[in-house]
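Lecture notes, unit on protein representations.

Consider one protein chain, 280 amino acids long.
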Amino acid sequence: MDAFFDYVIKYIQLLRISDFIDILIVAVIVYYLINLIRETRAMQLVKGIILLFVVFFISQWLKLNALNYILGGAMQIGAFAIVVIFQPELRNLLERMGRINVGNIIDLAADTSADDFKRVIDSIALAAANMSESKTGALIVLERSTRLGEFISTGTMLDANVSSGLLENIFVPNTPLHDGAVIIRNNKIVTAGCLLPLTANNNLSRDLGTRHRAAIGLSEVTDAAVIVVSEETGKISIALNGSLTRNLTKDSLTKALTKVMSQRAPSQPKIDKIMFWRSK
């Protein structure tokens, strides 16, 4: 045993500082890749690939030539099959990697005053609470660091100040803009009646309608915060990073939006991430 530890110590002494840095960088990359694909179909893909490699090497070790030949051929074309079959997951993975931000977590407005910021949050929460009472369906998107230009272009441009009255009027049933989403950028209602991508997650609760699925879908491919008011139940929800938090009140929505969207104060630590429970 002592000889083994002596060997390990000698091996470590032979390593250069660059080797430690190399190993550390690889470990960090693997860690973040696992976090990015966790809770997605891509994670099941990784498990399948690992199992395939294990069976391949076992068949090679046991000299199961036929099985080894079949698995070898499957692994040669596997890379192309992965790109074709899991194209949505791979695109989502790359988009999430591209959203990693080493600066401020939000981009609501660089010159936004605290009063304006609070006014916007309070207006959104009040509008959501009023529409919840009247069971008026609504979908409100708050842009963060990921630009939403491709979704903004699908709606009707407004460029209006945020107010609870305007938000409530936009979502009045049977009006031209009530079916789409409102997108807020830099404390302004940029556009209304926007089309959002629906989530491909088939494990969601059956009581979630199109608005909820659109909210989750957009939060999966961007870092936007999306508020949903259910037309059937009047319940308020917020989607972020592919997760949905439901049954919010006016006060809890205000707190959630403030935490998610607030700019970092000089004396406060940066908000790295907000954890939400997944809908069932």
